Amino acid sequence: MQAPVHHIIGLTSIVRERLLPISGTVLVRLNQKVNPNDIIAEANWSREHVLLNVAHMLGVNPSIADRLIKCKVDDRLVAKTEIAVGLGLFAHSVVAPQDGRVALVGGGQVLMEVGNSKFELRAGIPGTVIHIIENRGVVIQTNGSLVQGVWGNGRIDSGLLVNLTEQPDSVLSAGRLDVSMRGSIVLGGIVKDAETLKAAADLPVRGLILSSLYPSLIPQAREMRYPIIVTDGFGPLPMNSAAYKLLSTNIKRDVTLNAGVYDRYSGVRPEVIIPLPVADAPALQESQEFLPGLQVRMRRPPAMGMIGSIVVLKPGLSTLLSGLRAPAAEVKLENGETVIAPLVNLEVVG
Amino acid sequence: MTSSLVDGNSILAVDVGAANTRAVLFDVVEGEYRFVASGVAPSTAEAPFKDVSEGVRSAIANLQAILGRALLDASRDLITPSQPNGSGVDGLVVTISAGPAIKVALVGLLQDVSLESARKLAQSTYARIVETIGLSDRRKPEQKIDALLRTQPDLILITGGTDGGAERSIHKLLEPIGLASFILPEEKVPAVLFAGNEKITEEIKTLVGSFAPAMHVSPNVRPSLETEDLEPAQRELARMVINIRKQQIKGVDLLDAWSGGFLLPTAYATGRMVRFLAQVYSAEKGILSVDLGASAAMISVGFKSKFTLHVYPQFGLGDNQPGLLNYTPLADILRWSSLDISEGVLRDYLYQKSLYPSSIAATKEDLALSQVVARQALYLAMQSARRDFPRNLTRIKPGLTPLFDPILAGGGILSDASHPGQSLMLLLDSLQPVGITTVILDQNNLLPLLGAAAAQNNILPIQVIESGAFLSVGTVVVPVVSANYGTPILRATLTYQNGAEARVDLKYGSLETLPLSSGETGKLNIECLRGADVGFGAGRGGSISVTGGALGVVFDGRGRPLDLPSDPVRRRELIKKWNWTLGGE
Fold this sequence. Notes:
The structure holds 2 protein chains of 2 kinds. Chain A is mainly beta. Chain A starts with a strand and ends with a strand. The radius of gyration of chain A is 27 Å and the shape is elongated. Chain A is built from 5 helices and 30 strands. By secondary structure, chain B is an alpha/beta fold. Chain B folds into 3 domains: 93 residues, ATPase, nucleotide binding domain (Nucleotidyltransferase, domain 5); 143 residues, Rossmann fold (3-Layer(aba) Sandwich), CATH 3.40.50.360; 314 residues, no CATH class. The longest helix of chain B is centred in the middle third of the chain and has 23 residues. Chains A and B meet through strand 1, strand 6, strand 27 and strand 29 of A and helix 3, helix 4, helix 10 and helix 11 of B.
């Protein structure tokens, strides 16, 4: 059976496709070095419009109004620009109510795009542009360490990694954040209250790497201007040992948080990237067969979040403690205990 | 003349679910179609595979390992037709429920008429209604345009106007849709289904077709104010959903080609079977089919020529579980629990489970949590679907579930339960059936596959259903009565075929069972006390033939609507006792 792979790996070649949601302009060249916050592509797409019914406003029929309209599609108008003037001695005029671009003209009406219409796509990871996808985006490659998370708030930033945890189940509270962490990425453990998120914003930090977050804090976490990546889940969960070991041994290094919102269809995940100055690195493996010896993470109880290794794949279906029957493996956990876990509850770590 | 037995064609049926893909072989055994075996593999619509055909090939490979018969060739393509050496199959049908909920915008004239029909139409598939535009909508045109740009529907359902009725009003409603579609990037322009005033169909085709290349037309869902006919539009919608899935998920086009176009949304295929069963079997009571899976909860009812189908992605047990809290407080979910679980633990569970929707409960505590969530999800789906049930269904009392027989239940949480008693308790709690009914578990999740196969071979579904491929859980007797806890409300005597008798005295607030094995029949004599009603009338008893099942005959005297004690300790004790009665823990 094919196993999902959750990447927690010390050295690998990271290749990421970065795409605009709609067609636009790519702003970088092939082989160009980029930083995570660099804008690599942009597109114009307004979601705010004003519809001016010129015919109605001038009291004429649409075909006459079309002849009176002075603007054409793609014209950029500033507020109060005259769009059409009516007929007669004391004719009314129609003016642009605000700055904007003419999107459509016809049927005696003018549709204007107003408000901010620019969509900017950031690189998300530091690296080299290795492929340009015309009008849509780029592929970027870098070598380094990679820790994937399970939840992100959609922000991107980078900075020096600071560790505020003593152990994988440490709790981060507002009182532990001080001015020395300003501009840093903080490895923080469990967050239980909104005050901690706010204190981090007030410093401000460049990002938080958390083992877990209380679900009630998700709305506030989404609002934060700095990236937040959760490695293990929701509630009071410790950080899995593989992620904790890798992150806590890279303190004072420059790290990038691309806290992408997890999308199971596209495969986008929140990621911590630690660039390393090496020429070659092995490629990531996105899936592989379950095999004895593989390092896995438990996704559900028992021992949720714990790392272990597959001892043996059980033949046929196994009866679990719950009474359900499923294909399963015997897994030796890092604490020495052995459990029978259904394969669907395991993910390969590597 | 029917196709089928004359040819004796084997049919491979594949269901691509959000979590699992199942491949099932139907073939002729001793002159009749039988369910032969099934193979299961994890679905692969999501990353890293992003191609459903991978999971389908794996499920077929698992099936051929069970059968000892090759179904795939060396390049992992399906062998079809079947070969003299026994390899391959003669036909393939596919159903699919995998994929994100389809974002739908409804456009119609009147809130209570055409928009109501549009809502029912949208709810017959894996849809999430993201926008509604009607005549009473007071927003400015540009606000409607911006709403469509913000929500980016995959599909717009336009209804409105009885045949020969309103024309100008519909044109007016279409203006913001046309403008929004014109502004949207080409790849994001939604598909459009027009199911309104048939007199203006050609005009609408020209108008809407100019901005929406994927324009479909179906007969009016509301040909007159008094008449609603969703079925032709549902059929068209099913085809459109497959087209949208082809754009969203790699591999769907391959499955469509392999199956020669016999690819249907799972819910639509299930609905087709329910409609068929209702026409064949439904007499005094309706047929109820429920399915609780990762992608959605589905409720379908057939009663004579009437039929309803509701699909609720928001009540599915997959990645949208935290969304359940938009419809219900945590306390209402926990009321079903026999364990003392805090609201915080349940909230954490819902969010954590949403990260790994295909994972299963490996411990008793985890199973208990998944069961209580499933109960509330199915309960909410049933409550929502009830308002659209056919009006002529027989009811013992207004406000209660109408009389159904049988109740068909499928979906992972029900079919994979460790004991049929667990599944039955879940169904009794969430559906709250009344009267006398048979509960049948679709343990191999065959119903949608039979619905899909029916298009190729119309005798296959009947023969497979009658062959015992479904698990009869038993006959359930639920009296409707008001009484105090512990008061006797019903006496019943079951006379077995060998003449032996078994008796039960049912007290209010309790569950009782009488053994009656699968395949056995018996005569059940019921005496109703204190005005209890099991469908014969208040206080009236009667005698009926009953068929056995895994749990025999089950008597549910807990009252309807089910009123659980407010004291949590007493409630948990009672739930434990009820679970114990049905063989669970």
